[in-house]
Amino acid sequence: MTEKELQERLKRFAISIVKFGESLPKTAGFRTVKDQIVRCGPSCAANYRAACRPKSTPDFISKLGTVEEELDETMFWLEFAVGLSDAQRPVVAPFWKEGNELLSIIVASINTAKRRKK
Question: Does the reported pTM lie above 0.85?
Answer without folding.
Answer: yes
